[in-house]
Design goal:
The protein is mostly helical. The chain is built from nine helices and six strands; from the N terminus they run αβαβααββββααααα. α4 runs antiparallel to α5. One of its GO terms (cellular component) is presynapse.
Length: about 230
């Protein structure tokens, strides 16, 4: 009991002075400090390499899972944006999604609960509400609710960080452009010395007696210029 209160011979607990007590009270670090360990012993209590590798592997796996989650949310957002871009109607006299004109002979229109736009019954989804009458959502608003539910945006009140996928068509077009550039022959400009060296060699071959003052050139010069 006395060892627990005052410490044993190997572990001495020293009560600090008033100034240290006030400082440690502001730092929320306790009312006494341990003095039986030296600075070298405290530095020796570092993590081993195996423990550091284990911690880093856990952090790396968590980062990979975070990236996978961002890609998953990005695919949901991309699907919602594609639905918005594919809408062709005005939502007033036409169906917002398919563009069908409303009238006596066409399908009846329903009003979306969220965006207050008119859609046909084929492009609308009936939801069960607290009211007795049926409530409708357009497919865009229904998909938006699904994105908020599956991405956790309902909790954060905003879409979390996400990575939208790059369209395969854009990648294919870029690959085709790169392949076409690689297939095109590289135009090389003929050096200035090409025609001069060629004329000198031809003159030596045709008129050997009148070309004594010309420099001594052989066919290797022409081959070098061609390459």
């Amino acid at each position: 009991m006395t060892d627990a209160m005052f410490g044993s011979e190997n572990e001495h607990w020293v009560c600090p002075n008033d100034r240290q007590l006030a400082l440690r009270a502001k730092l929320h670090t306790g009312w006494s400090f341990h003095t039986f360990q030296s600075e070298r012993e405290r530095k020796a209590q570092t993590l081993e390499k195996r423990e550091l590798d284990l911690i880093m592997s856990v952090i790396h796996r968590a980062e990979q899972l975070e990236i996978i989650e961002q890609h998953r949310i990005g695919r949901l957002v991309e699907r919602l944006e594609n639905m918005r871009r594919s809408a062709v109607g005005n939502g007033l006299s036409q169906c917002l999604l398919c563009g069908e004109v409303f009238g006596l002979l066409s399908s009846p229109s329903v009003l979306c609960l969220d965006c207050c736009m008119k859609v046909c019954t084929k492009c609308g989804i009936e939801t069960a509400g607290s009211q007795k009458r049926a409530q409708w959502l357009c497919k865009i608003c229904s998909e938006r609710r699904e994105v908020w539910k599956r991405s956790g945006a309902w909790f954060y009140k905003a879409l979390p960080k996400h990575i939208r996928p790059i369209k395969d068509s854009i990648l294919d077009n870029r690959k085709q452009v790169i392949e076409r550039r690689e297939q095109l022959p590289v135009a090389r400009s003929a050096p200035i010395s090409y025609t001069w060296a060629q004329s000198c060699i031809f003159k030596k071959l045709l008129f050997p007696s009148s070309t004594k003052n010309l420099p001594n050139l052989d066919f290797s010069t022409v081959f070098f210029v061609y390459s």
